Amino acid sequence: MIKAKKDIAMGIALFGVSIVYILQTFSIRQTALIKITSAAIPRVCAVVLCALSIVLTIQGVRAYRKNRTDSRTVEERKNDRMQVAAVVIALTILAIGIFLMEYAGFCVGMAVYLFFAFFTLSKYEKKNYPLFVALSLLIPVVIFLIFTKGFGLSLPVGVLGIGG
Amino acid sequence: MILQALLNELTVQSLLIIVFGVAVGIVFGAIPGLTANMAVSLCLPLSFGMDPVHGTTLLISLYLGGISGGLISSILLKIPGTPASIATCFDGAPMAERGEAGKALGTGIVSSFIGGLFSIIILIFISPTLAKIALKFGPYEYCAVGIFSLTLVSGLIGGSLVKGVIAAVIGLMLSTVGAAPIDGAPRFTFGITALSSGFDTVAVMIGLFAVAEIMKEARQSAVRSEKVKALNYKIKGFGITFRELVGQKWNMLRSAAIGTLIGILPGLGGSTANLISYSVAKNQSKHPEKFGTGILDGIVASETSNNATVGGALVPLLAMGIPGDITTALLLGALTMHGITAGPLLFTTNGDLVYGIFVALNLANIAMFVLMFAGMRGFVKMLSLPKRFLLPVVMTLCLVGAFAINNRMFDVWCVLGFGIVGCLLDSAGIPFAPLIMGFILGPIIELYLRRASMMDEGDLSPFLTRPIPCAFLVFTVLFFVFIVIREISQRRRSKGRL
ipTM of the assembly? Predict the structure, then answer.
């Protein structure tokens, strides 16, 4: 049932995406010189996606009608909710890390990211805070030095202007 | 002349350059986000201070090492080191999860070596002939090859055909973001300047594969689970037996041929070759259902073909002076900086350099084989590190790679964006591999289709009147019919079982 619901949701979402995409193709600049315009391929893709999203939705509805009962136990449902929450938290930590990398520099951003990533991924493990702090401070600095001094790459230095 | 070139290359200085180049290349290849192109472009200034033979040797070694190193993270972390190793993940990672990381790595290294060797032999003996054939490829031919390659995507679809095709179409749609080919009309940029160059393949790849791995670990760590018994990663010899190797001879030969041919055709390269070879190997296999579960065939197909593109890409460069990809364009630049003009006359005016390149390629291939095997046991030890520490550090390196592509934060944000898209698609069971294939092939198909339409004022009949595109389009139709028939018979069989 869960799979069927996901297929329906994805089908509807992709249908919406394909409609927005088709509408957007009408604002693409056309050149008379080329018979196959810049909008041609995107339009073909959008039409195909639109058709496939309808097929996916119909498949999902059919599967849902066949099996409407949720066979998961209370424990499994709780686990599923916890897993979704963990993914949202992990993505949020990554977003914060990238944001800090841009504005406060690579080392600061990645130190914050690493610390919270170690912390959240160690939910049922022994939390060794000194190790988390040491690794999250040391690793970005080492990476920063290797890539900037060793390979001559530039990394964001942020407003602090020191790479972190 | 080749003996003289061999003697020139067998000096301590040359060998050190080769070992340095291959080692740095492997490091760049192994770190997701850092690519062979990046290694070559970073070391390009170093080559200017060397004589032409040594300078070219360094760049070639970096190129070969970069393509080969990608298999390490593909197998051990399930994150492709380079776009040329995406298909290696499909069977390499499941083998590593079963405790067969050594075998997977050994197979990958041997396949890479054989793929490289095959393409070098082709390069040495029939490069001018092949380059002339490649030059006959015009927009119609390229477009037809692209369409045919896209149908091969069926080999990358696991379960639902609808979801697989949806993934390929999403990939094609993502590739249309940015300036349109030929006329440069902005598409789906919403006024954002950074979007005018579109999404970078590396950012898309890292977003989908690396973020997916972190999310998988986050999901696993969210619920209390039983302690997983530590796997024994002991490696015997090369990891792969001689019998297993012989059993893969046709797969290797076919994949090496595909890789070399794709390498010769400008614009395609290793990122396409590995996925196409994997699809072909799966479609040709007697047991296609085993692909993706961790079998040698998948690793052999991917790794043989991507290394074979190295020699293939040098064919048009040396024989015609036409670079096949970004790396060979950099090589062409390096040759020009030394006052050497690549092309048909190169063999007569600078024979020593050409043969020096042939010998350097062979030595670099051997150095890659030796260095990778020497480091194999060390690479596998990485698996004994807890994933809760390893994956965030790998993610940090991925972000470095994403930033280094164009020196801008936009690509880093793209990693996050595609990570979120990947999570949504993954939860709905939509596979990533066809998406990547659509994303890579989309611009090639569109560019050449539009060029073709310009050539004959919109008349596309040459697709049917010219032999090569017509043959590829006929293959495409036949292959499509074959897929539909297979799908129907599989459904009937599964209904019969119920």
Answer: 0.91
